[in-house]
């Protein structure tokens, strides 16, 4: 038998946006339920040191997320380890069906499904995924003790991964398609001053090559973006860190997106085009994409949802009195 439950506010996703929405919605006595999704804690669970979360000079990403979850729970947010597989935003109340078979109907939805790592899209990258190609240094760096590693990308993620991987690797080569990094200056300084890291400018990965039996990476073939010259770099591990794409599968064809797939909200709010549906964090933010801005948007979404529900209840009370 399907277990259907009606709640006022359903929060989908468990990064900084989701947990902050949980704290605020619970304190507004909305009795929110938060469905954690496939990666409880979100992207910060795959990082190490976080140095820009206010109040903590340095905190480990996974620890920060454990604390956020405990905080939301302590305020009265119900946290469920499940995955929303389908979401109906066209009918009211909104309906979310979970992997476990549980079904929730809700008056308001706060979407905080975040973003996930992008890949280069090469057939050879696909072939060696899990066999030398990875998008998570904290998960897989340990396997490359004493080896040579390539990191692809020029943003904060690539630089942080390159620095982290020096804990294991003999040498790390950062391959970037331009001659300028997007990463914060403090991270760039650490990268340029690190004796184990070499930076290869103006290069793109053409192919990951390696052995078939057993399957394993032996290097990458890179192409100079201006001259077209091809070079090979020997490496046992290739870490792809070229950015993130918003996780919009649940709302595909239901909500308007822009700027490459990010859910569109009314400027200065978290309101989507469907009244009662709010979006916060990396799902909607193509500009800032920080833990602290996501948390801020989670707060805004809970306040927007609180106002929406109050107006809905007032309208219901007026209709009942007439
Ligand atoms: P990002 O800032 O979007 O950087 C992606 C990098 O990958 C860029 O340098 C880009 O090159 C390169 N790239 C993109 N597609 C490529 C392709 N097909 N082939 C080769 N290179 C490609 O992504 P991110 O580093 O994952 O960071 C995402 C957001 O999270 C940012 O706002 C970042 O500040 C934030 N973040 C913050 C922290 C922190 O504060 N500690 C840590 C991690 C991430 P171009 O530069 O040429 O475009």
Architecture overview:
The protein has 322 residues and is α/β, with parallel strands linked by helices. The protein is 27% helix and 30% strand. It has helices at 16-27, 61-75, 123-128, 137-140, 156-165, 185-192, 291-321, and strands at 4-12, 33-35, 49-50, 59-60, 78-80, 84-88, 94-98, 103-111, 115-117, 133-134, 148-152, 171-175, 197-200, 203-212, 215-224, 230-234, 237-240, 244-246, 257-258, 262-263, 277-279. Strands 1, 2, 5, 6, 7, 8 and 21 form a 7-stranded mixed β-sheet that branches. It has a 5-stranded parallel β-sheet with strand order 10-17-11-12-13. Strands 14-15-16 form a 3-stranded antiparallel β-sheet. It is elongated and about 80 Å long. The chain starts with a strand and ends with a helix. The mean pLDDT is 96.
Cα shape: elongated
Helical residue percent band: 25-40%
Give the DSSP E fraction (strand runs of 2 or more residues).
Answer: 25-35%
What hetero molecules are bound to the protein chains?
NADP nicotinamide-adenine-dinucleotide phosphate
Overall pLDDT: 96
Number of strands: 21
How many individual helices? 7
């Amino acid at each position: 038998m399907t277990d259907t439950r009606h709640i006022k506010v359903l929060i989908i996703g468990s990064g900084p946006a989701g947990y902050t929405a949980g704290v605020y919605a619970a304190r507004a006595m909305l009795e929110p339920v938060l469905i954690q999704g496939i990666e409880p804690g979100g992207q910060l669970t795959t990082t190490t040191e976080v140095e820009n979360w206010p109040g903590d000079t340095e905190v480990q990403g996974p620890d920060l997320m454990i604390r956020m979850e405990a905080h939301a729970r302590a305020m009265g947010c119900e946290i469920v380890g499940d995955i929303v597989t389908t979401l109906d935003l066209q009918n009211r109340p909104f309906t979310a069906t979970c992997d476990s078979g549980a079904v929730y109907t809700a008056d308001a939805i706060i979407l905080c499904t975040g973003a996930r790592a992008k890949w280069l899209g090469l057939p050879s990258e696909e072939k060696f995924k899990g066999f030398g190609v990875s998008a998570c240094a904290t998960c897989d760096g340990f396997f490359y003790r004493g080896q040579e590693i390539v990191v692809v990308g020029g943003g904060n993620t690539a630089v942080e991964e390159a620095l982290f991987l020096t804990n294991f690797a003999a040498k790390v080569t950062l391959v970037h398609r331009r001659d300028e990094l997007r990463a914060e200056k403090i991270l760039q300084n650490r990268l340029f001053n690190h004796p184990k890291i070499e930076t290869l400018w103006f290069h793109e990965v053409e192919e990951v090559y390696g052995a078939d039996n057993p399957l394993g990476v032996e290097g990458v073939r890179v192409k100079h973006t201006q001259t077209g010259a091809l070079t090979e770099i020997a490496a046992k591990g290739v870490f792809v860190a070229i950015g993130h794409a918003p996780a919009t599968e649940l709302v595909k064809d239901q909500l308007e997106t822009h700027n490459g797939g990010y859910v569109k909200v009314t400027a200065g709010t978290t309101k989507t085009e469907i009244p009662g549906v709010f979006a916060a964090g990396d799902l909607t933010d193509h500009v800032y994409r920080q833990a602290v801005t996501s948390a801020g948007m989670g707060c805004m979404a809970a306040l927007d949802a609180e106002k929406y529900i109050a107006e809905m209840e007032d309208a219901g009370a007026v209709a009942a009195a007439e």
